[in-house]
Structure formats: structure tokens, C-alpha cells
Design brief:
- The complex is a heterodimer of chains A (85) and B (438).
- Chain A is built from two helices and no strands.
- With 85 residues, chain A is mainly α.
- In chain B, the strands form two sheets. Chain B has a two-stranded antiparallel sheet with strand order 1-2. Chain B has a two-stranded antiparallel ribbon with strand order 3-4.
- In chain B, helix 6 runs parallel beside helix 12.
- The chains are: A mainly alpha (85), B mainly alpha (438).
Chain lengths: 85, 438
Amino acid sequence: MTIAWDAFLSVVIASVGGAAVIVSLYSLGVRFVTDAELLAPKAAKGDGSAVRKESFFRSIAYICFTLCAIAVLYEIYLIIPFFHK
Amino acid sequence: MDNNSILLPLLVFDNHTEKALVDPLFVVVLVVALALFFDFTNGFHDTANAMATPIATGALKPRTAVLIAAVLNLVGAFLSTAVAKTISVDLINEDVTIKVEMIFAGLCGAILWNLTTWILGLPSSSSHALFGGLIGAAIASAGFDAVNFIKVVEKVILPSLFAPVIAGIAAYLATKLAYIITARSQAERARTGIGTGRSRFRTGQIFSSSLVALSHGTNDAQKTMGVITLVLITAGVLGKDSGVPLWVMIAAALAIALGTYMGGWRIIKTMGTGLSEIKPAQGLAAETATGVTILASTNLGFALSTTQVASGSVIGAGLGRKGGTVRWSKASHVVGAWFLTLPAAAIVGAFAAWIAGTGPFGILIDAVLVTGVIIALFQISKRNAVTHTNVLSEVEGASEIVETPAQRRRAEKAAKLAAKKEAEKAAKEAKKNKKGKK
């Protein structure tokens, strides 16, 4: 019997790739939330384009956070044998 | 002989050999109890790995954090049984007849090594102690053929070498990405003073540390299930190659969850003392890398030390931030302890197997030894108040391997100040001498 090196490769890909995707999505969320917050004072003054931009950034941020949650749940889903019968 | 059966009602008198034997079922019960105890200590020991950061940063209230960790460990224990199978089916060669006494001795060896190192404050890994104990006991009682070494290398040794490195690389990359992605908005925030910026990673840490707790349950609780299943198969209660019975899953899950919950009080007591230099973004990256690496390994039945994976991640995240450097002397100290655990526990396990092999009283001696160490630990933990130094998780210890620029500047400043003082002192001394000569 030989050692299954492809199994190790799959751990590398799942770990490095998974962490990169999850953390990137969260970071993008953080970034866009901050961008939206930076625009908030302008938006409060009634600047139309700032209002639009702010809500746009905020929606992108929430999409990123949601995708991040989905990515985490997907990683958990992958390891549960119950779903892969 | 009559005396013996009064002393140990569970001894069976064998008419053919005229030797007293221990009822195998009694040993099975002992193994189940010890395995669950081992599971409990594992949870107790590892709560800090998952929840120390969100508690320290104030992202979660201590009680909530500990409760979340306990529940997620419980849930994690039910998610997969791949690691349990590694232990119950793969490690020990099937064609060699093993006895329940051997598993008992292996478990004793693991607990003895684990608790003794804990009392002495030496870094260790409960998982490696468990494997070491079992392997040592198997070799001692049934020879080298008893152990399936290829499987040991493939599912225990190699993962234990690779997983911390993989987690480290994952954490390094994730940290870099987190800093690059948030760099512009962070700079803008610093300029204007508006917005939350990177402190928002603190909230994310609630989820990432939850992921660590969940993955901990998927890997560590499995080890106990594996040992219990192995002893049930050996005793003939279960058929060969059978899966983990439901009651074993429930018992192991509850034991690790209870241990996690109880262990949490140690962290709560030391709140705010052990703040590490890890920033929220790094913490999130490290914890995500840890959780994902453990999950991926669990899926393939790799039984690894969750503490070592978490340590690898913390080091990777430390290096991922600008200017982080490795303190190699500290790193070699930690890594050296990792390599020592398995062979050392194997020797203790072999010794326990040798004692158990001498007969029923051997088993009694093993049981007394383990009980003694447990009582000693209990006494010591009662006497010593929990302090920053003894509650520090090994992962936090590993975080000290990386030196941040701020720490370096502080050290340099201190060194300069010391040198200046030294110079002043020397100058004064010289003046005095001059005066003295006059």
C-alpha cells in the first residue's frame, strides 16, 4: 500500500483556498461597509450621489458577508457524510 | 485465591489454567470511562484555543463564548466519523489478536503522559499522547506486527507534520489578503476618523472562532469514539469493521462539550490578562485557516493535533502582517515538544502494557497510577490560583514566536535606555575615581 498523496493535495487546496476565499469575502465586506460609512456624512447632508453610492456600497458589503457565510457553510457541508450518500 | 476474589469481585477464576483473570467486560467499562475522561480533559484544555481571542477582544461575553464553544463541539462530534474509523479500524493490524487489556494500557499511558506534562507545564498534544500510548501498548503486548505503520504514517504522522504548515500558509495568505483588501478604506478612515474599518474583523472573529470550536469537535471527539469502538470490537461486542454506535457518539460528544464548558471558567477567571499582539484581522485569518484545515483533514480521516494546527495558523498570521519576524529559538522549542510527544507517550504506553500484562494486579496498578495522577492534578489545580502564565493556551505561546515591529521597537528602546544608563553610571564611576585620586 502506498500513501495517498492526492489526499494531502486536496487538504492543501481546501485549506489554503478555503481560507483565502472566506477571509477575502469578509474583508471585502469590511471594506465596503467602511466605504459606505465614509460617505454617510455627505449623504446626511442630502448629497444625492453620496446617498446612492452609500446604499450601493452597503448592499455590496452585505452580499459579501452573505457569500462568506455560504462559503463557510459549504465547507462544513462537504465534510458531512450524511449529505454524500 | 479466595482473598483475591473478595478484593476484586470482578476477577474470574479460570479452572483450566488455575489463574485469576480479569473479566474482559470490566476492562471494557474501564476503557470507556477513561476514554470519556480523556475526552473531557481534551475539551477542558482546548476551550482557550477557540475562545480566548473573542473573549479578550470583547467581541463576546465570556459566558456566551464558552457556551457557544461547548454547543459547537457537541454538534461537531456528530458531523463525521472518519477520524474515529482511522483509530478503530486502521491503526492496529486486524490479523493480530489484540486484547482489551492492551487498549486499556495504551489509554493509561496516554493519560499519564498527558496529565504529567500538564502538571509540569510542558507543551504536549493530547492527540499525539493518545496515539503514542496506543501504539506503544500494541508493540509491547503484541510485537511490531500489531501496528499498521503505513497507516500510522499516512493518517497520523504526515498529517501532524503537514497540517500546521498548511494552516500556517493558509493563515499567512489570508492575512495578506485581508490587509490588502482593506488597505484603502482603512487609510481613508484614519484620515477622516469616520467609520469602523478593520475593527469590524472583531465581529467576524465571533464566527471564525465558532468555526474553530466546531472543527475541534469533528476531530478531537472522534478520537474518543475511535478508542471506545476499538475496545468494543476487540471485546467482541461489535463486529469487525463496524461503525461507531450511536450511544458512543452521544457519550463522546457530551464529554467533550462538558469539558469545553468547564474549561471556559479558567479563561473567564483570567480575563484581560493574556492579551496577545494579534490584531482582529489576523485573528480572523488565523481562526478561519485553523477551522478550514481541521475540517478538510477530518474529512479524510486525518487525526491531527488541533492545538498544533492552531499554532501554525497563529504563526502564519503573525508573519502575514507587515514586519513580523520569527523568533527561531522559541519556534524550535515549541516544535521540539511536538516531536517528543508521540514517542514519549509510546514508551509510557508500552510500560503500562507491560504492567497490565503481568495479570489482574497489573491492571489494578495501572488504574491506581492513573487515579493518582488525576488526584494530583486536581489538588494542584485547587492550590494554584489560575494565573496568566498557567492559563495561557499553547496557541498563545506559539503567537510569541512571531515578533511584531512594535515589540521590536520596544525591545530596542529598552536596550538603548539600558545602554544609556550604563554609560552614565560608568561616567559617574570614572568621576568618583578621579576625585578619589585627587
